[in-house]
């Protein structure tokens, strides 16, 4: 029986055997995997060599201790000792080669996600704007373009940009001054469009902090007010939740929910699943071949091999599992992995690319269509995220006392339970909702995402939520919970390193990476999102049950200017 885990799937008809594939038809060398030389699966081989190393070391230590006590020369060795020494050396070489190389690769490999873990965010804020001597971002022009002669005066540069002689996207790399580049681009845009953009501020922002990672072709920045709801008493912590929004009444409503939760003893949460996903799609000549790769990937005996290959890309990304789906001769492979405190899309993508390169040797007829086949599923509402989760899967709950329901929420338990069933459960079912069994979870998710530097587009799947309300303790008290299976957040990378967003993360105590427990900051942020959603759901449902929704929005969600104009209008007789 063939025990090589990489040969469990028979080759296609007419394919060349492994040893003959070492060189192709044109003398092109094909990559041969180191595991091909092993007669056993890698996990068994690791166990054998580990046991051999431990047994040889213990045996030699005991023998040498006996020789020292008996004053026997150490260089006088028996055949058994020679065998033990050889076994010790051989096992040590194997273990160093297997584990050491992977460790060195993970340390040497530079990735944006890893750098975010080891670079303190205070250093990130102190970074100076890039100078002309620095390597320009690849997105902002080639090094060759940076060496071309550039006009010295801003007016000449603006005219050249307007005339199309200088591309706008090379200004940063060729000027070496991000603020100056943004100003020139803005002036060129004003001349081209005839629009002044007076309300869009230009000064007061560190444009170097977004170079090559957050935004291209900047001409200014948008100001958003940030409100604070709280304290949110969650898992014994008193948290003040930053929310960036332009919707009046949203922060006030969430704040009321926080008050109700705090006066009832607080809320509790649990992260019951944590794993980012990426799902490449590959195509085969036949559906049978696609099914063979599916069987290979989902075979538990092959997981250790795949994990070793996947985990080389990062010190924090660790493969958790692979789930496959077939559509004709196309195979969709949904990889899930832990990502530390990063949201982790880049991290998992690198690991997936490693696995695809590895599989190509055993499946030469595999055609990689895309690194993402939408089975992930990223920035789209999908049942796979609702069922299997993506990012952090969180449930948050609280028991609201009867007196708090009446005093703070201005309603009663029975009315809240009935409204939740008719609106959030039955109403959403009538609408054909997918993960939308809630009142307005996306409102809170979007506000916190923008304030803390998350990807706002991932609000689509992150706001999937089911809100449950039940009467307990003989109908006197209210048990309320929110279950959110795909909260996609991180505390390093992307927009989290910007000054304003970093300050909001610091307010929550989750700024940057947690060195003692990697991943705990991101998980805490996910629970804060769920806790804030719980508070906002409780408050909005109460307002609707009491008939206060329109009244509160008329008070908080209309500009004072509009109200003044309406008041000044002459009344008709």
UniProtKB/TrEMBL annotation:
GO MF assignments: hydroxymethylglutaryl-CoA reductase (NADPH) activity
Reactions accelerated catalytically: (R)-mevalonate + 2 NADP(+) + CoA = (3S)-3-hydroxy-3-methylglutaryl-CoA + 2 NADPH + 2 H(+)
Keyword Ubl conjugation: no
Keywords: Endoplasmic reticulum, Glycoprotein, Isoprene biosynthesis, Membrane, NADP, Oxidoreductase, Transmembrane, Transmembrane helix
Pathway(s) this gene product operates in, as recorded in its UniProt entry: Metabolic intermediate biosynthesis; (R)-mevalonate biosynthesis; (R)-mevalonate from acetyl-CoA: step 3/3
Positions of transmembrane segments: 42-61, 82-104
Main location group: endoplasmic reticulum
Gene Ontology CC annotations of this record: endoplasmic reticulum membrane; peroxisomal membrane
Its job: Catalyzes the synthesis of mevalonate. The specific precursor of all isoprenoid compounds present in plants.
Similarity field: Belongs to the HMG-CoA reductase family.
Protein name (Swiss-Prot/TrEMBL): 3-hydroxy-3-methylglutaryl coenzyme A reductase
